[in-house]
Amino acid sequence: MTHAKLLVIDAHGGMRHAVREALVDMLRPGDLVVANDAATLPASLHGIHVPSGDPIEVRLAGMSSLSVGVADFSAVVFGAGDFHTRTEDRALPPPLAAGDTLTLGPLSAIVTGVLGHPRLISLRFDGRPDEIWAGIAEHGKPIQYAHATNQLVLWNVWTRIASPPVAFEPPSAGFVLDWRTIAAMRERGIGFATITHAAGISSTGDSDLDSRLPFDEPYDIPESTARRIAATRSKGGRIVAIGTTVVRALEHAAAPDDVVRAGRGIATQRIGPGTRLHVVDAILTGVHERGTSHYELLRAFTDDLTLSAADEELAAHGYRPHESGDSVLVMPTWGGSCKPT
Q1: Domain-terminating residue out of 83, 108, 139
Q2: Which among 27, 41, 115, 263 would be 20 to 30 A from 313, CA to CA?
Q3: Domain CATH number, residue 22
């Protein structure tokens, strides 16, 4: 997004304003930038709750693995309506129970469980994997919220580096990247690598359910990325995460001995003020509201006084929330990649 803004919080809590394209200027040779290359699924599916005949919207919200054969998902379900109504104001779905059939366009699914909240279920699609994914592609729409008045299409929610379609909402921090930015990094001796992480939904419309975010999220770290992280850290370079999903994946993969392991896993941890970061030194992310899981994660990078001052700066200069393109870069409070204990 042209002319998007960037607030940089430096090593001592100082702040400066820049255009988002200036990200490269904030980095130094030897740093490694790691981004999430997940493409966004059309994860909003409208249909019918067969036992009641009532209309519903199913927003796919999680899956147990990145396998192309997966048929089981968790999902947040709403009653009649669409994104034009604020998520907080959406009607509850009809009462859901294990065994209920859902008709979602060309797809049929069975509710396999209600997960402690009337909006949150597990479901299993009927059919072969190719039929399931074709049905999602044909019938689904990107999940969106009332602040965007026009219906989104897939290219609106794919970053320039999007690859496997496994995210339920965009790993939106990645919109800062384009091929010119990546080329500029290379020219300056700044490394670039990717992971794949199934970014989940950012809001359920219910405060109790939102308090359970983020849900468990599968990820895959390529061997090449794990090697580059190890090499960067051994030379004192910084690991710069593009987005909260990258932080979750890398920190989960580094437990318990600070070594990032290649391969697949499921990020189950919650990162917040009590978290000691083992791998990531800096984060570029969107503008997040206090109390959200994204904001809580930032508290692992800097103190509450600094974040409060940042909130004031963001409000005073009209920064837009993370869905709209403005960003925050939190740099480390120490040199290199080795954290103090």
Answers
A1: 139
A2: 27
A3: 3.40.1780.10
